[in-house]
Amino acid sequence: MARPSKAKARSGCPVSMSLDLLGDRWSLLIVRDMMVRGYRTFREFQHAGEGIATNILADRLQKLESGGILKREPAAEDGRSTHYRLTAKGIALAPVLLELLIWGAHHENTDAPCAAIDAMEQNRAAVIAETYRRWEQRDPTPLLPPFKMQTKTRKKPKGKSRK
Amino acid sequence: MARPSKAKARSGCPVSMSLDLLGDRWSLLIVRDMMVRGYRTFREFQHAGEGIATNILADRLQKLESGGILKREPAAEDGRSTHYRLTAKGIALAPVLLELLIWGAHHENTDAPCAAIDAMEQNRAAVIAETYRRWEQRDPTPLLPPFKMQTKTRKKPKGKSRK
DNA sequence: GCAATTCACTTGCATTTTGCAACCTAAAAA
DNA sequence: TTTTTAGGTTGCAAAATGCAAGTGAATTGC
Question: Which of residues 55-84 of A touch B (CB under 8 A)?
Fold first, then answer.
């Protein structure tokens, strides 16, 4: 069982309970896409670059919704489409994702530009504040662009316009 | 596939790469046990209260080791036993776990005492510093005790007593 | 000294989850 | 009206998980 939705009541530890909901390969990536890239639709998540299968994506969206991390609302401009939006509980994951991002950038071989990571690390509060502002104002512009696989060329500053 | 060990090279995003190693139900719980409870042996992890199966535990320990999160060293005092110890990379997960703990305590129904969580939240840097001190000095006393299920639901006293 | 116990796993097997491709329905576009 | 698009569902094979039982080496009890 990779991620029990039925809450097998393991221990009362907050870390354990958090992992009941988020402890899998995809859930936090979806939250990341919503939080920092401004993605809102099924299709955007699907093509976010990690290759999630559509059935898994549908399942994770449903579990995140019933876990209170996000909610879905019909897209006003297109009757076929649904917009997913983080709840207050979901956006509160910002510090977790930020620390995970910083850790990964320091300790794994990622494509993240070092300067950007250093800047975030030294301005954690500002990054969190900006994340909240974007959420409150429904600002869909990316906080960070997707780190494209730029294979080896580490110093290429690619269009990191500004938040 | 719940947690690919073979690194399918998804994207260069640090969050994604972090989750390649840690994105499952158990890995971060093991790190938590080592970091805040001072657990070091297979047996301690096994009986940490979440009910991990021994084959899964062995698998996760091996993956965390090959991921550079921990290393194993023979126990000096007992030739049968192995001590697991976090590496610098592993202890650097402290902020991630702290934020996950705070988030879970606020947004899930946990057994964590609110006062303790509030104190940690207002003294993040001190908590991290103390975590590092304990690690450097190999201090095995628990930073936090396991949150016992002090509330009503006493589920099933199934034969977890002993073997 | 020797049997019993402990520690750290491993093995087999049934169940569950995942990944993949194909398919479906409603709404919008052409 | 036909075609395309968005957001899924379904079926199936492969992989991961959970569980119980077993293994072998080191250690303890007597």
Answer: 68
